[in-house]
Amino acid sequence: MSETLTRNEIIVRPMTVRIGAEISGVDLTKPLPDETIATLQEAIARHQVIFFRDQPVSHEDHLRLGRAFGELAIHTGVSGLADYPEIVAIHADENSKFVAGENWHSDLSCNAEPPMGSILALHTVPEVGGDTAFSSMYAAYDALSAPMKAMLEGLTAIHDAEHVYRPIVGNNGKTYPCSEHPVVRTHPVTKRKCLFVNASYTTRIPQLSALESDALLGFLFRHCMAADFQVRFRWTPHAIAFWDNRCTQHQAIWDYFPQVRSGFRVTIAGDKPF
Ligand SMILES: [Fe+2]
């Protein structure tokens, strides 16, 4: 569905045929009526990632927005703000040695119950650069050949956070989550099948030999990054991105060093992939 949808002054404008829509006519700094929440739920089910402009949300607004779509999750990799443990700061500047989410990933797929979605609000963005790219895992699954789909059916994959967070957070005695999920999952809302492996967390398909697993994952990681499965978002100050983590992957592009890119994220809890 690619036409623009207008309902109660809310405009949902698709950005590509497969993924992404920009939404206007909504003020996220105010509590949202149920009807608006339903419209946004429908938009995210269809477009997988939705974007808003000019929404200078406070931490309270941000939490309220997240809670309208489900219970909030505490990040299992990095600490939240002291007063708002459900809010994680996302920040890069001239002192940054790395940025979060530089490789393609689905947020915290290492968790036994990976998040349903994430809401990122950036208040400060570089004048040029700092886009986020999102890829549709429905599109990735749909594009596979029938023999490949048949082969993936019934396979699982290991998603490990150790190699992702240990180098960033250091040796603090903490253990990081590691979980096994189906390679192809069924979206609990749309009932559509999507690929659920990503280059950041996924390490191994245990039913295959190491060589087979490396080859198949290498292919799937490359396949998931095809440009025609993607939408790329150009940030503006106080823009918000809200993505469905179950059927998308994303990559934060760090092409703006030493400029500042800064904001906050909340994460909405999800359930066990099936
Ligand atoms: Fe991310």
TrEMBL record:
The keyword Metal-binding applies. Residues 12-266 form the TauD/TfdA-like domain. Keywords: Dioxygenase, Iron, Metal-binding, Oxidoreductase. InterPro entries: AtsK-like (IPR051323), TauD-like_sf (IPR042098), TauD/TfdA-like (IPR003819). GO terms for cellular component: cytoplasm. GO terms for molecular function: metal ion binding; taurine dioxygenase activity. Belongs to the TfdA dioxygenase family. This is Alpha-ketoglutarate-dependent taurine dioxygenase.
